[in-house]
Specification:
Length: about 240
């Protein structure tokens, strides 16, 4: 959450917020884990066998683990998330500028990428608890890939009221317009909505609209700590 600290001894203003009746979730690295780079590489090698040395395998695995962090540098405006073609192009540019791999392996890596994306273990239980309590749920993502396929496969789609994706609406986080689109999709005011994401840059774009915002940074492992959302939103 966003907190304001006051010097000791100074009076703190009393601020009353309305109850939260809607939650907007980021998808990648918030509800969906991108999996390990080792799993990703193994899936590609099963599809397109290559003889990689141990050093080549290690270098490529290390690079793949941080490839989307690298994309934030080479594509700071997230233009890759406005079309499938741009997303794939940026991927291949990064890969060739980095360790460089055979083109057939590069193609295979991109083709199997979403196969290793899985919901965090606490994603579906959190969404189910919110839905059962009557909380509206919208998913909001900078996505230049067919991420709806992942949501369907992981059983998330039936648990949400709306999905707003950058390539469908023509703007990307942190542009406030995409947060406005998410709020409109679930017909909720910002002061009664919580935004949950993993990026202190992308997922805070709704602050100027009055969205209370919770940042849970990317974690490694099956659980992302999403239980904190139900503790914040649902009555004891």
């Amino acid at each position: 959450m966003t907190f304001v600290l006051f010097p000791y001894g100074l009076p703190m203003p009393l601020v009353t917020y309305p109850p939260i009746r809607a939650v907007i979730f980021d998808i990648h690295s918030t509800l969906i884990d991108q999996g390990s780079a080792a799993q990703w590489l193994e899936a590609a090698l099963r599809s397109t066998p290559h003889n990689l040395t141990n050093l080549e395998r290690t270098e490529l695995t290390d690079f793949l683990d941080l490839i989307w962090e690298g994309a934030r540098i080479s594509d700071p405006q997230s233009l890759r998330d406005l079309s499938f073609a741009d997303h794939e192009r940026i991927f291949h540019e990064l890969l060739q500028a980095g360790p460089g791999v055979d083109q057939t392996l590069a193609v295979s890596l991109y083709e199997v990428m979403l196969d290793v994306w899985k919901a965090y273990d606490d994603a579906v239980p959190t969404l189910y608890a919110l839905k059962k309590a009557g909380i509206k749920i919208c998913l909001l993502s900078n996505a230049g890939v067919p991420i709806r396929d992942v949501l369907d496969r992981e059983g998330i789609t039936p648990l949400v009221d709306a999905v707003v994706l950058s390539y469908e609406v023509g703007c990307v986080k942190p542009d406030p317009r995409i947060f406005t689109a998410a709020l409109a999709a679930i017909d909720c005011d910002p002061n009664e909505t919580l935004m949950v994401g993993d990026s202190g840059r992308d997922d805070t774009g709704g602050l100027e609209l009055g969205l209370r915002t919770l940042i849970i940074p990317r974690t490694w492992g099956p659980v992302h700590g999403l239980a904190v959302v139900t503790k914040l939103v649902l009555p004891n």
